[in-house]
Amino acid sequence: MNKRISAVLCTAIATAAVLAAPTTAQAADPHPKFVVISADSRVLLKFPTSEQPKGLKVHVRPKGTSTPAATLTSFSVTERCESMCDSDMPDMAEYLTTGPLRLADLGQYAVDVEYVGTEGEPVLHKDSSALSYVLRPVFENVNYSNGVDLAKQDTVVSGDIKIYDPRDSSKKPFAGGTVTRRIGTVATPVTADAQGHFESKVVLTGAEPVHQDHFDYGWHHVHVDLATELNGAKETTHTEVNVNAVRARITLDSPTQTGAYATRGKVGGTVAWESPDGTYKPVPAGTAVKVGTESVNTDGSGRFTASPKFLDDKPWTVVENSPWLFGSGPQVKVNTTAGTLFTGFTASVDNNKTVTVKAQFDRGEIPAGTTSLKVEVQHSADGKTGWTTRKSVDVTTRPGANTPAYIESTLPYPGAGYIRLRYAGTKTIHGWSTPAVKVARTMTAIPDFNASPEPVRKGRLITVTGKLTHADPTWKPLAGQKVRYYFRPAGSTTWRYMTWDVTEADGTFSQAFGAEMTGSWMARYEETDATHFFAESRVDEVVVKP
């Protein structure tokens, strides 16, 4: 199957500019924004409304001149990329298109768009697009000699490249032109002969990317992409070489696997393919094999090793996963024993020094007599050694398979370091530990705090001052942080929020208040960022006299 792609047009579509300001007044322009594409000797236009602008004209003029070489007034409707692109690009909008331009001279042209404005005046958008009117290459008669399989992995891709003259639509051979043949990421140059004909022998390995036919899912093919260029104009196409599957045989190292729930097994074996004489040969390196839900690739001798996870006692089917092969695969008998698994583990500490841990606790094949499992919340300074249990959580558990349990627990901040969850396990139940998560914030303090003068007469000012510091790692000023002021009248147990301030570069803060009654003052750093702890100053009482 051959599919022609106009690279110039598709690129132009992908990068087409949306035009804005016209040369006349914006208020009189009914179409201030539209799309213009110039490619393959044609001009395409898309307006916001489906209706063609009144008096629509396209002027094509040589760049650097003011006189049009052609003015086009007849347009047809086409769908973007219709018959020109093998593309899944969205928005298959309708475009107005000119026919192929017939200009006297090759060269570079400017495209101007004109139509009638809202009050009957001409609206002209100059330099709406640029048209490269040059001799360009085209592909013809692209094909391949035969389909391929592992017994016959070579084919010949051939075709013709010609030079298209837009002035009269004539074509002549692109003698000596270069075609770049690409399969996946591997590119090979091919030179055309004096008649523009090229042939290229393609030898496949059997591990190339294989595509499935969109219309017939029983067919698979390898894309052989072709590209050529002339006068800056690029042309691309491809041919689809059919792949015919051959019978595969999979031999396992062992037909059984035993392991604890959530651990991984080890399944190994070889894959071979049946040649026409009935003998079996190793499949190419990189052939995909599926073991249960895990996919792996073979090495050069056809061997594979997979590590599927034990989740139940359902057998693991081992099959080739390549369109080059067919055949049912053997099954591995699975015996899953009791075990556990943590997923989605998180650990964090808030600004009040409370650590919160969360995780999902999965269990499988739990033996009879089990009613709960003890999960430990552990702390380590370096996340590797010295793990200490800081809290235990009993998770209700029943025999057999269990639905996931969701653990959420809190504990006091044990100091900077790492947190993990662990189920130690027993002789019959496999244990599990989460990865270590670093949990740490920087300590803060308000070591300097004073409300003065004291005592003070009613109506005078009380100045509250302080300094916020943090251990980073030694104690130093903490600037740019919000500190809140609180007041508690004498005889009351309730603190009143008064106002807030932002610490200076040296960590200090200061605020003046009118003296109304005797009471105590305090400051708090409570709206912390994600890296600091809460801090609270000492309490300072000020006596207010009449």
What features would you highlight for this structure?
single chain, 546 residues, mainly beta, Immunoglobulin-like, six-stranded antiparallel beta sheet, five-stranded mixed beta sheet, flat, disordered N terminus
3D structure, described in words:
The longest helix is centred in the first third of the chain and has 9 residues. The strands form 11 sheets. Strands 1, 13, 14, 16, 17 and 18 form a 6-stranded antiparallel β-sheet that branches. Strands 19, 21, 22, 25 and 27 form a 5-stranded mixed β-sheet that branches. It is flat and about 110 Å long. The protein is built from 1 helix and 47 strands. It is mostly beta strands and 546 residues long. The chain folds into 5 domains: 132 residues, Immunoglobulin-like (Sandwich), CATH 2.60.40; 104 residues, Immunoglobulin-like, CATH 2.60.40; 65 residues, no CATH class; 101 residues, Immunoglobulin-like; 102 residues, Immunoglobulin-like (Sandwich), CATH 2.60.40.730. The N terminus is likely disordered. It is 2% helix and 53% strand. A hairpin with a 2-residue loop joins strand 17 and strand 18.
Low-pLDDT segments, ≥5 res: 1-27, 81-92
Name the CATH class of the largest domain.
Mainly Beta
Overall, the morphology is: flat
The helix content is under 10%
How far apart are the termini? Answer: 101 Å
Query: How many DSSP-defined strands?
Result: 47
Counting H and I runs of at least 4 residues, what is the number of helices? 1
Major sheet attributes = 6 strands, antiparallel
Helix-strand makeup class? mainly beta
According to CATH, what is the topology of the largest domain?
Immunoglobulin-like
